[in-house]
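FAQ: What does the model actually see?

It sees only this:
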Amino acid sequence: MAIDKTINAGTSLNAAPDVDEQGPTEWQLALRELLKRPPALFGVFTVVMAILWALLPGLFSPLDPLNQDLERYLKPPGFVDTAGNTYWLGTDQLGRDIVSRVIWGARVSLTVGFAAVFISGFIGITMGLVAGYFGGKIDAVISRIVDAVLAIPFVLLAIAIIAILGASLQNIVLAIALRTWTVYTRVVRGEVFALKETDMVTGAKSAGASTLRIMLIYLLPNVFSSCIVVATIYLGRMIIIESSFSFLGMGVPPPTPTWGGMLSDGRGFLDTSWWLTLFPGIALTLTVLGVNLLGDWLRDVLDPRMKRLDD
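And it is asked to produce this:
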């Protein structure tokens, strides 16, 4: 009996390590990786700040971005008016506060960026799923449509759309989305071609699952991570494109503050009033840089082929 008790005790002690211990989840590992990467942390911080500026500009803006006063014509950074208001980044040619206009300008840039990414992503993912799953003539037709869209110069297409429909926020989003959806289509189409031959999809077909169910339940979740990476990387390009349109006078019409519009307004005063272009340029550069750094981190986290092996 004593021997049996000893054996049982030894067995219980040895069995203790077999208790299920939940390890860190993938997102916990991703967060740990994020904390080890200062560039990615900088990207997250920059993007979060830009989103807060876009959502709550009145909370950060010290003054009205549209308030004009020619007595404040081209005042340098640090100027204090008679009312005691400090213009930390100076004023423009109409006496408007540069700080407030930079903060409010984030709303237009990010609105265009996120809206264009969402619309182009929806169109591109849908077309990619259909082309990759059905193949054959349907895939050939969609592929020819993609080739035709890519054959049209982007700037020419955008100018034509804006010239016909007019310069507005909605038309800028439309002009960008009608071209960038092709990127999602190519990515999704290639992945669906490989996924539809797997046992997962074959089993779903054998079980009688409908085509729509297979696309939404079995295929879409498996290609969604790649789409998120593409969306994050292209978000920075959308912001640049919107700023370029505003710089060329094809963006949101004044007096709505935009970073590209501020750069366009200040180019005539580069030799005398450098602050007109410097600070919106810095805001634009840091935002796009932050988005790209965030996209690199998401690519490493969500794309298994890009994950680094731990030592």
